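Appendix C. Worked example: 4-azaleucine resistance transporter AzlC
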Amino acid sequence: MAEIAVNKPASEYRKGFQSGISIAIGYAPIALTFGLLAKATGLSIGETALMSLLVFAGAAQYISLSLLSLGTGIFEIILTTFIVNIRHFLMSTSLNEKWEDDQIVNKAILSFGITDETFSVAAVRDEKVTSGYMLGLISISYSSWVVCSGLGHLIGASLPQTLQESMSVALYAMFVGLLVPSMKKSAKVVFLAVLAACFNIIFTLTNALSTGWAIVLATLLSAVIIELIENVKNKQRGQEHE
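Step 2, the predicted output written as structure tokens:
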């Protein structure tokens, strides 16, 4: 029994590592692209790798590159990425109910590695989630993201200067590629995107706010307005059914 207890953490780590291989493969091209765009934005390879090491959030890192290219201040970048990643509170709360380990320290450390993909894999697992399993799942995913980010920067450095400069266009294409599938699934996302764009245009044309604050405020206002409209519609539906 003692041998089984000792081998269990290693076995759980192995299971998590195996579950994370598909995530690591999926992260590779996205991280490579991030590295390429980081090089085009003007980040050094050290800054690119450090961002992936400390942030480990694809959408937030892409948005940060866009804001950096616009000369946005550090506070606006932090606030914007916080808003983008606020969903992590919900994911962590949900996963906490399934997490077998009750050690707060383990959960606090490993929560850094919770992304949309690692959360999805852990959440659908039939068995309870353990710290060993999460460590294996996160370690392979995290390694792929960081290493491929650096490789992307190196590849970008070897490209012709004209092609490096043109890579900035790919950043906006990436955002469009992320947005369109969501817009197809939900009309709410369409209205949210259009409203945020309108607010941002107004703030930019009137020079009322800096570029960074215009994006932050446009995002917050559009999200609040859309949710208020959604709540009013739900109340009306509820009254109709009574």
